[in-house]
Amino acid sequence: MSAIDGLPPLREVIARHDLRAKKQLGQNFLLDLNLTARIARAAGDLTQCDVIEVGPGPGGLTRGLLAEGARHVLAIEKDARAIPALQEVAAAYPGRLTVIHGDALDIDPLAHVTPPVRIAANLPYNIGTELLVGWLTPPDWPPFWQSLTLMFQKEVASRIVARPGGKDYGRLAILAQWRCEARIVLSLPPQAFVPAPKVESAVVHLTALPAPRYPADPKVLEEITRAAFGQRRKMLRAALRGIHPGIESLLEQAGIPPTARAEEIDLCALARALSSARAGG
After folding, report:
1. Where are the beta strands (DSSP E) in the chain?
2. C-beta of residue 212 within 8 angstroms of C-beta of residue 259
3. Is the pLDDT assigned to residue 1 strictly greater than 50?
4. Would you say residue 105 has pLDDT above 90?
5. pLDDT tens-digit readout, 213-261
6. Largest Cα–Cα distance in the chain?
7. Collapsing DSSP states into helix, strand and coil, what is residue 244?
């Protein structure tokens, strides 16, 4: 498919605007508009939604989202070179695309979108995990977004959807699956991108649950998860020693053997015990 609209093919757009991918920006452009359309469709029915896209680059996924009927797209792009190309997309879809030049880590998108909101992006590899953790750990739940449809390196995607007990199960799996349904919806080989990365990529779709699966304070759960999986080869009584002086008794209170390892246990139960201990309960 050379076009899904009246706009030129992406290779022509990249050449005309001199948009060679920059490694320092984590850029790998997906040029096949068939694939960008499939990613847009994986985000679900967008006709009644505003969509936030981070790192649109030359606008391949942006065009897919708009062609699939997104009510409005907010595109946040750090690379100034891409802004003229994105403005051309905005002109082809009057009133349906807003382009912001800036760093997604510093921008609050809520002033520019109207609920319901979904997020869909081929995330820059260098900030993808940081953005995901931020979206998964807001102060209030449910979050401002209904779903996330995000491209990652396949090894990161595997960690997001991993099940307990496996080598991939860790912090990302807990943070994602505690509050969301998470699944891989599309895998892509390196040659689908320009330049081709050294690894495969995958698209993960996360749907926000109305409430977390198990009660726990999100900040405490994040603290425990970071410590436990930061030293995952150690027994919990050693890995969590710095979190609370009475960690062994807290583990026992939560029904967790102090000799267990992080991937084997219910960290939400431990988060509840730690919250209670800190509150003097």
Report:
1. 29-30, 50-54, 72-77, 97-101, 117-122, 145-153, 180-188, 193-194, 201-208
2. no
3. no
4. yes
5. 988 888 899 899 989 998 888 999 999 999 998 999 999 988 999 999 8
6. 66
7. coil
Instruction: Name 229's Cβ contacts closer than 8 Å, sequence gap at least 6.
Output: 170, 171, 262, 263
Q: How do 193-194 and 29-30 pair as beta strands?
A: antiparallel
The Cα-based distances of 274 to 149, 163, 249, 269, 278 in angstroms read: 33, 24, 10, 9, 6
104 pLDDT higher than 90: yes
Q: Going by C-beta distance under 8 Å and a sequence separation of 6 or more, which residues neighbour residue 244?
A: 250, 274, 277, 278
Q: What is the dihedral of CA 66, 192, 34, 206, to 10 degrees?
A: -60
* 49 alpha carbon, distance to own chain's centre: 18
Residue positions counted in the chain: 281
For β-strands 72-77 and 180-188, DSSP reports them as unpaired
Tokens of 127: 């900030």
pLDDT of 49 over the 60 cut: yes
Token digits of residue 120:
């869909």
pLDDT tens figures, 251-281: 998 899 999 988 888 788 899 999 999 887 5
pTM of this structure: 0.89
Hey, what amino acid is at 280? Answer: G
150-170 per-position pLDDT tens digit: 999 999 999 999 998 888 999
Element at 34 (helix H, strand E): helix 33-42
Which residue, among 102, 97, 99, 160, has the nearest Cα to 128 in the 3D structure? 160
Q: Are 256 and 269 in contact (CB under 8 A)?
A: yes
Q: Is 115 left (phi over 0), alpha (psi -120 to 50) or beta?
A: beta
Calpha distance 241→254 (Å, rounded)? 16
Q: Return the amino acid letter for 268.
A: C
Three-state DSSP class for 145?
A: strand
